[in-house]
Every structure is written in structure tokens, then in C-alpha cells.
Amino acid sequence: MKPAPFAYVRPGSLADALSALAGDPGAKVLAGGQSLVPLLSMRLAAPSTLVDINGLPGLDAVTVTADGVRVGALARHADVLAHDEAARVQPLLRLALSHVAHATIRNRGTTVGSIVHADAAAEMPVVLTLLGGSVEVAGPSGTRTIPATDLYVGPLETCLAQDEIATTAFFPALAPGARVAFAEIARRHGDYALVGAAALVDGDSVRVGYVSVGDVPTVVDLTGVPLNEMAATALAQLDPADDIHATAAYRAQLVRVLTERVVTEARTDD
Amino acid sequence: MTTKLMGTGVQRVEDQRFLRGLGRYADDVAVDPSTLHAAVLRSPHAHARIVDIDVADVLDVEGVHAVWTYDDLTGPMAEPLPLLIPHPMLTHGRTQYALAKDEVNYVGEAIAFVVADDRYVAEDAVGKIKVSYELLPPVVGIDAARAADRLVHDDVPGNVGARMEQNTGDVQAAMAAAPHRLTLDLTVERSACMPMEGRGTVARWDPDIDRLQVWSSTQTSTGVRAVVAVKLGLDLRQVDVITPDVGGGFGVKINHPWPEELLVPLAARTLGRTVKFTEDRREHFISTAHERGQVQYIEVGFDDDGRLLALDVKFWHDHGAYTPYGLIVPIITSTQLLGPYKPEVYRVVFESLYTNTVMVTPYRGAGRPQGCFAMERTMDAIAAELGKDRTEVRAVNFIQPDEFPFEQGLVFQDGRELTYDSGDYPASLEKIKALIGWDEFPAFRAEMAAEGRQVGIGLACYVEGTGVGPYEGAHVHVETSGKVKVATGLTTQGQGHATVFAQLVADELGCRFEDVEVVTGDTRRMPYAVGTFASRAAVMSGSAIHLAAKRAKEKALKIAAEALEASPDDLQIVDGVVSVKGSPGSSIDLGTVAVLSNPLRYAFDEASKAATQFTVGDPGKPPVAEDEEPGLEGTDFYSPERSTFASGMHAVIVETDPLTAEIRILKYAVVHDCGKLINPMIVEGQIHGGVAQGVGGALYERMVYDESGQLLNASFMDFLMPYVTEVPDGIDIDHLETPSPLNPLGIKGAGEAGVIPSAAVFASAIEDAESIPITAMPISPSELFHLRLTHAEETP
Fold first, then answer.
1. A194 is in which domain, residue-wise?
2. Residues A3 and A46 sit within 8 Å (Cβ to Cβ)
3. Can you give the CATH number for the domain in which A252 is found?
């Protein structure tokens, strides 16, 4: 469990980081390393260069404005979780982040890193998708903004090019009167969810995002669907699968339980 | 100190070191850059013939020093690894080679051994070895092994390594005569020990003294020493094995030698360099050992009170690809299954089967959890059949306190009669009922039901033969400083031996607890020893240390009596000072006694002057008397006739979620009888750890093999050990102390107890909550969900 040989660079500027990436088609970005380092150690990934962006200035900020929360690429899950203003402007961040792994992992792992790692079993990609957020990406030809709905193209795959770096994730503020809820069931505290669900209720609009029930983060619009039919409607659009921890049928049951749980909670006055 | 330390919760002397990160494990030995590091090429296939191994590219890798395959091994190293515990019924025992010869039989089997400047380079080199395989069909799981359409070893018909039967009478006649009969089909899945520290071995050859020094993370340093000497063709005196701090063993490290435990010393001797192997977690999953996997079929006949008239058990034990540890696990299952009960007639037949999976050797509990599961599921089934309380059915079957010693009429794992020495099961039952609130539970269940919550209560009883022989020894040496150096040969994996053994020495010798230093598992200090397993350290080494301390004390009193001109009977030793009882002015400290014990020709300091030839002794007698030896030391050995039987009962209240089938532990209680307690805090720590491990085995952990023999969850991401958040919030513990008559201190082992009844007690409680028979463990929410579906279909 030792990584294969790789070159390591730790650039001091975004421009240098981008050129390092561009200079080696086998290069990968290292931020918090909570997903990448185990993959390296198990030799499931063997990038020829690691571009460590931890030395880049100005990427560790969590910036809150009236329109939402901007999370820099080096902001750790723990920074976002502890950010009271962020929790006020978009409560779903804190609700979901408290389910992300364990404190030690949240201290190193970055929210943006989790988002671009694109694991459908992770919480933050679903949260970004449900809220209609986006990521800002820097590349050789400048920056671009990718809406979450366009970001995820397959299992562990985003539309980012190899030579691009996600610099910021933007989570829109919760609209006045809108409500959110989050729940998940995991085998153990802090594990990847067997199924997770996040609800966003805004007036008549009901949307639920699901964790671990498909290849990519999936959000289902349940507006106008009676509560007791929501799960069936959602399941028609989801693809729960068997794995060593749970059957597809059990995951479907959890979709039923959690859909009702999060929608009811989001509809309930505090 | 006049108060006895035995029975008090003395703080562990080890913890300062461990908690500050100052523990010194095998990987912490020889950290200088000149040490070479090993990596192993392991089979990616569960069953294959090796057609060719090409290592040509490896030696080109910069930093690689050597590579071994089977063809490079000679003499005893080229023979199969030892079958450690032969048994006449193990008719088809097989062990692997240090490096695979012609065939591999599980994913993870060692094929080639690379030594390089560091582990990174060694792993790079391993990746360059080219092996061509001819794939063979794998045998995975007990059903496939029994079907025997495919064979693991061509020369083992039916995949049966052993078939063994024991009975205490005519079970068929007793069954036929029984007023009630039931059958049960049960399954227990595989799990494994998973110590925090995996295996680790370091070896250094010293050409100046022709001597090999080995550090190994083992549960038996003397065992490793003996086998390394034999395999490398060295005299025993040329090999020292030192066990540094060990980060947990739980059984897996009693098996020896692991291939690397021989290959590292071989490499060190061949290359003349210090060589280290530190196992990584994936290797631990696929190349050490697992346990637990069994399929059981039980037929039981009983009377109207639930009394066992005939118990007929068959089980199939999955022992994996090889049998280095013999039949110990299934023999323990088959004998310890009886627990605290006395069936009129018992018959047990087992088959120990080969599969193309990691081999099976003892894991904490060592076959007892499976036996307990069989027996306790049977007890619950009888109670359900008769509509009786589960505790009543158990009570009518208990061996009574006045029936000890009680002979079960079977032969135990040590080849001796299965005879229980002591216990009080009715008293334990009363305690556990009170502790868990058994009689109040119906009211609690009704209260929960009113809130729409579903709860169940479970109970399980067990007996554990502990302190198995053949022997352990101890050496107690009082230095002239008054410090007391104690050595025993068995090893320590975190149990707190340095504390409890020091308690025993302080009590017996009369020295200060702080002055005692205990060394374990170092063959230079105590070359005669067996090892740490079967909950035996306290019983075996504890007794030996007590006896050795007694010898040292007797000698100290004799010497002090002469110096103080008093009778030894009038002396006492308190806080390291020997004094005449009632006349405190007349005293001599143990350090000075140690000085006097060693008649000297040469003085080297003020203290030693007192022992020189013009100062002490009767000039008319030899300075060392005929039946004496110089030095204030005591050595003794303890070798019991048979094992001593600890026992206990666990009870649990669980809540099962009606929608998600999640299983939550509301209350967990343990009543435990390990005879006289040396250190109650440490015993309770053992129980806490055992229960945590048991929760893992009952609700989380399993080895998931696919049909091709790949282990799908060989990482801590997918092999689910419980976190602190998954184990009971608190464990209510009550002790019962029925002293063992078999050793001087009246103690019994406590190491494995916490884990033995876990599968049984959770099955009992979940069944009670769900009113669905629970026949297979572990159980996950997903499985419980499907059980509910199946049950609903079957009972419209």
C-alpha cells in the first residue's frame, strides 16, 4: 500500500498550478487528499504528477453574501460546517456536512474536492445539485462557471478537463420562506450513506436530491405529487443497486422512508 | 504496603507510554535508513497452477537487493510450513509453503518475496514480476465445499480435512424416547481479528557472534524462535526472538510461522543486512487468517420442562485453504457448545472443510461463539416451543454448584477430559436477570409499543475453558538496587500484563509495586514458554509468577534471618523492607538482601563491600551452601492438570426500526465469573473490548467473497468494524467470583469472554423483537428487512 512513483509540485500561484497541469496529461490535483491519497496507496490511481494546490493563496475562504455561499477550493469541510453565517444563509450546508465522514476527515477534506470527485455516494454533490449551485473552474483559456446540473456526467466523472482546476463552489442562498431538510441512513456513523435524501421545499415546489441511488447525484422534482406517492415517483427516476451492504430492494425501502421523512420535516414549521 | 493489590483496580503502568505514542512496535525497530524492506507478490487468483514466474525485470529496478521464489528455497525452507497441532482425526491436513510451489489456493497466498531499499521500491518491483497461471475452478463457501464438485487439493477427497465425532451415549435412542423434538439450521459467517497493528517482523544477523536477532509481532516468541532455528538450520542458541509492543493480536498472531516470519530472517542472513516486513491492511485481510464460518444442523429432544434429553449436533467448519492450526477451532466449538448445561446424551459430528479462501485459525473466542450460538439458539427454540420463559428453560438444564468437578464426558482441545472445575450458574442467572431487568421487560415492551417502538430482550450463557497448558514459567530477580525484574515468556498484546503481574509480585514478595518491572515475550529472558492465547496469561504466567515470587521471598527471608539473627518465621517483608515483626528497628531492605545473596570476591561500590569475603559468611562453610545458588532470584513453572472454566451470561435489549430495520442497542449487561479478580478494571476493559468486538461480529462484520474467491471488502471502508458510536453506550457489569481450585490464586481467564455470546445474545433479542426466527449471523438492516418480507409471505 505505497503509491507508485510520481512527481510532486507545489505551485505558489494559480497560473503555475494550471501550467503544471497542462504540462503533464497524467497530472492530478491534490487538495485535501481524503479520496485521492487512499487511491494512490492502493495503486488504483497512478498519476504521473501531483499538483498540490495547498500553497495557492486565497482559495481557503468561505464567503457569504445575500445571494449565497462561496466555498474556496481549499476550504475544509470543517470550515464550512463551523461557519455560522453560511449555515444561516443556506442551512442545508450544515445539515448535510454533519453527515460527511468523521471530524478528522472533515478537517482535511475539502468541500470543493468532494464535489469534483463526483462520488454519487457523497453528500455535497447532491446538495450542490439540489440547490442549483455551480462551480467556478480555471483553465488554460480562462475561467468558466459550470452549473451543477451540467457538472456530473458519469460515475466519479465530471465535465472538468484534465487541465482545469475547480476554484470555487457556489451554493445559492435559501429563498425566503423556503425550507430544507436532510437525512441519511448509513451502516455506521460517518460511513457513506446507504441512502441519503435532501429536500428543498419552496411554496408548492418540492424537490428531493438523493445520495447513493444512482451513478450521479440525482434530484427529483416532486412538485404536485401527494406525499404518499412521492417515493414511487422518485423511485421511477432512481436506480438503486445491490452492493455488499444492502440490496436494491432495501435501498428502495430507504428511499420511501427518507423521502417522506425529509419532505415532512421541510414542510414542518420549526 | 500492607494492603493486597490483588483485587484492586491498579492503574495500568503501560498507559503512559501507549497514550503518549511511546509504544515501540515491530515497525519502530531498526528505523535507520540502512534497513531493507520487504514486499510480497501475492496470488490474485483463488485457485490456479503456477506455470511460470519471470523475475527478470525485477532485478533491474534500482534499489532492489534480492527476490525469492519457491525455486530459490532449499532444505527445510523448501518444505511445507509446519502443521502446528497434529490430531489423529486430521487425516488430510495441509499447509502452505513459505512461497507457493506449483499451485496457489487462495487470493493472497505468497508467491515471491522482494527485498529493496524501501517498501515503495519493493512494491514497484513486485509489480514487475510476471506470473503465468493456469486457472483452476475455485471452491468458495461451505456449500461448495460440501458439494465437492471441485476440489481444493486434488488429494483431499470431498474437501474434507477431518471428520470427528464425540458422543456421551446413544443419542438416537434418547432422541426417539424424548417427548418433544426440534431441529435447527444455523449459519455463522466469516470474520477476522483485525488488530490495529498487522503482522511485522524484523531480523538482523550479527556475523560477529553468529547470532540472529528477530523481532516479531507474535503471540509466541518461543514458537517463532524454534521454527526459525529449524527452518534456517541454526542452533536454538543462535536465535533470539523479541516481542516488542504488539498492537493487538486477538488470536491471529498465535499462528506461526507466517511465511514472512521465515523469509525476513532468511533474507537478513543471506544479505547480511537488517530486513523488515510490515504488513499493510490489505495484506492483513487476504494473507493472514479468518474465523467463525460454520453451518450447523441441530436436533434436540427434551421433556415438558425443557430438559435436554438428547442433543445431536452436526456442523461443517470452513477452515480455508490450509490447516496449520489443526482442528482446534472446531474441537472447541464441538465441546464448548454445551456451555453451562448437562444434556442427558450429546453427540457431535463435524467436518472441517477446505475452501479456496484465507485459512482459518483461532480468533478471540476460538470456535466458542459458534458453539454458544448453536446451544443458545436451541435453548430459545425450546422455550418458544414450550411457551416457557427463556431463563426457565436454561435454569432446569444448569449444572448445579454442588456438582463440580463436573465431567462432560468429552475430550477437550488439550486432549484432556472436559471437566469443569467450578462455577455457579444459578447465581449468575439471578444476577443477569436483575442487571438487565428481565422481569420488568414486559412492562417496558408495552410502554415502547405504545410509542410505536419495537424492542426485544435476549440472553445468552457460556462457559469458557481457559488457562490451557502445557505450562508457563517465570523468573523473579531482586537486584541489589531493590528493583525487581520479572520475566515470563508469553507475550503481551496490550492486556496490561506489566500491571497485573507486578501486582502479584508485590503481593507475594512484599516489594513495592513501583519497583517491579515485567518483561514478556523475550526469549533471552525466559526461553521456556508457550504463548498468549486461550485466555491463559493470567492463569498460567500469573500462577508461575506467583510461585517464582514465593521462591524469591523464601530465599530473601532465609538470608535476612541470618543477617538479623532472627527466625525466618518472625520476619515480614513490607514495601521492600524485611523486618522482625514487632521490632521495627531490626530491618534490612531487599536490595541489601540481594547483595548478601551473592558472595563476592571483588567490591565495586559501597553496597557490594558488604558481600565480600572478609565481611560476610561463616569461614567454616562454603560461601554458597550446597543446595543454594548465588543471587536473590526465584524461578518456577506452573503446569496445570487441565483448563479452568470461566463462565458468564450476557443480556441485551435492542430496538428494531419498523421501517428501516435498523438495530439499536438500548442496554447491554454482563455477568462474568473469572474466579478471583487480579485487577477488576482490567477485567472490565477486557469485557468492554470483547463486547465491542462481539457487536461487530453480530451486526457488522463479514468477509464477503465472490464466487471466484475474491474478497470484496478487504479494507476498513467496506469491512465494517463498529466505531465507538456503534457499541453500547455503557455496559452494566457484575462479577461473580467462584475461585478455581486448580491454581494457587483461584483465577480463571478473562480475555475472550466478552465476545463469546454476542451472536447468540443479539439473535435472541432480535428474534424477540421481531417474532421472526433468527438463524444466521451476522445480521444487517438490509437482511432483517428481507427476513421480514419473507416472513410476511410465509405467514399470511
1. 179-267
2. yes
3. 3.30.390.50
